[in-house]
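Entry type: protein chain
Record version: 2
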Amino acid sequence: MLSNELSPAQSPGSKSESRMFNGVEKDCPSPTEKLARKESLKVQKQNYRQEKKRATKELFSALKDPSVVIMSNWLKIRGSLKSWTKLWCALKPGVLLIYKTPKTDHWVGTILLSACKLIERPSKKDGFCFKLYHPLDKSIWAVKGPKGENVGSITQPLPSNYLIFRAASESDGRCWMDALELALSCSSLYKLTAKAGKEGDISMSSESSHILHLLQSTALTDTELLQLNDTVLLGNHHMEHDGFSDKSEREAHDDWDTTANENGGRLTEESDMDQSDELSPGPQATAYVEQRCTLTYAGEASQVETVSEENKGLIWSLLKQLRPGMDLSKVVLPTFILEPRSFLDKLSDYYYHADLLSQAALEESAYGRIKQVLRWYLSGFYKKPKGLKKPYNPILGETFRCCWLHPQTNSCTFYIAEQVSHHPPISAFYVCNRKDGFSISGSILAKSKFYGNSLSAILDGKARLLFLSRDEEYVITMPYAHCKGILYGTMTLELGGKVTIECEKTKCFTELEFKLKPFLGGPCSVNQISGKIFVGEELLATVDGHWDSEVFIHEKRSGQQETLWNPSPEIRSGRLKRQVVQIDQQGEFESERLWQHVTSAIMDRDQLRATQEKFVLEEAQRREARERGDKPWIPRLFHHDSVSSEWTYRHMDARPWDPEHCLVQFEKDGVIQTHEKSLRQHNGLSYSHSWASQQKVNLELQHSLIYRGGVRAHTHTHTHTHTRPKTNRILNCCVNLMLLSVPGFSNQCARCSKEVKDIALIEASITSIQKTQQDIQR
């Protein structure tokens, strides 16, 4: 029975009325409320449709924009008839576009990566195979092309629920795997890539674009990545609403979606998860840009210079101050013989072919590695400016930094140098590429000797090349530069002296001799080089040629001869591109900014202004030295090892690269560091993977235990283990675990052994939880 009576507490003008439904009293909205709710729902639906259009427009603009490309290259694709077709593949965030040609005029199809899984596929043929597939055997193809095409270009039939790809080599295949992993895990990166794409076309693998993003802009934090993932999930969810045919069902789903959005957009039970856990911030890296200037190449013509008449008077006035055998480090040289860059910058010329070291780290045999190291060593000499030029003497405390991107391995080689001493002039440097598994450290003492009609520039010092995963160190020396014809004849520059490359662990040894041109020698005797390669006491190969052109190696066992190094035009054009810091973002003591006025005057051929600007820097350095007095100079990035008497980079990280934990290597304010994954637990506890901090704690704990009595403290710990709370027992167990690495503390009780095993099980469980969380997040 329906009762429709006004309540005594209500007036006839009330906005709602009370009715009885099956004996239960409920409020029934008035016509005014119904109209307002209908208008509100109408506005919400209009906003909903506009948001859909905006998201669709953004996606289509990203698909059409040629600059928004993570990676693009030729790949072979297997069709339904098990035959292979070579097609052009362009990977964009969230989609893989397939064309017949790189011109993107003939669209074949678009794969929606959000519905795909990626797996490596074994193959008997050459190359590298991988497979994209839908786990439920559903279609992975989009129904329209990037320009609205309904029908793709005619090609062999392709499967609907999977595709098998073949790359030309394993390295190319790994690059594609990495790029697809990124596109699968975060398909909304097109928003970021579109911004970066305005600077130019980026056509490289995912990690290369990520490194370039780090080098050119601010970093992307884990929080932003999670927000982007949530945006994509919600965006896909909204797009699926059009699948409802029934109006009431669609409205009910809209109400559910509104409720979900009020709860933060989470549509599962995980919406109740605590969102207050702190996420590790992404790396704040230095912004690098590609350097446009080019270097000329060595050769007899570039090593000869005729002094102009206006500069001959300056040379004679300079020579009057010199005596044979005199050190030139304290002599002020005229600016017309200066190369417009610092000596710290000059030392970086040896790393334009650092990709050869990446290849050397992968060589299986010790002989193969030292051959590749020798090839890289020879690659550093053919680049030089035309004429006889000397770089600036660095100011005390001056620094220089740059890097090279490796497109083949998706890594980056960083170079850091600092002038750590002025008298004597010592330059320290550090080069590192942890992902490719090598680092180089060393220091150079630059000396100059005057011999009357000639002078020599001697680079006294050693470079130590370390292959991180093999723990192999190669000690390398440098030749000297010899300039003759100062008083009479033509001024000519040559390299001379004997150099060595030696690895104590593998017993590999290389000796090279840079030969000066003999008095009666012809053009073929210029820039000659010869050498030998030993493994132990056995001579395996000899080397000869010209260090500025082709160098041959003769294998003793096989009797064959092959080219070890040849800086051909193809090699020169394919060398790595150097990235530098823009001058307005450099520190006051960075080389380019420090010498910018001298460089500007030299480029303008204004020798007077160049001399004045150079005098200003030198006088400021003298004034600073007087104010410092007897206080020793403390370099910012390097420290002096009193044991080895060598300069060492303060932030050196010699750990092998761990792809499970290491994300990307970057540099900030001269500090080369690695951004690593961190374990995050629900209760907010974080577990750091910083090896250096763990080692520091271990050493401090060991030192404390030894200082307080060692064995007595150890025995005291065991005595009270069973009477203390469980937390103290675990702490004592950790102390005992640290004691295992201290000589004399190898013995432990049975209970400690059990607790050590328990801790090992806990650590294994933590690692498993971490992996599970990463899978969930992915």
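Comment: DSSP finds 18 helices and 33 strands in the chain.
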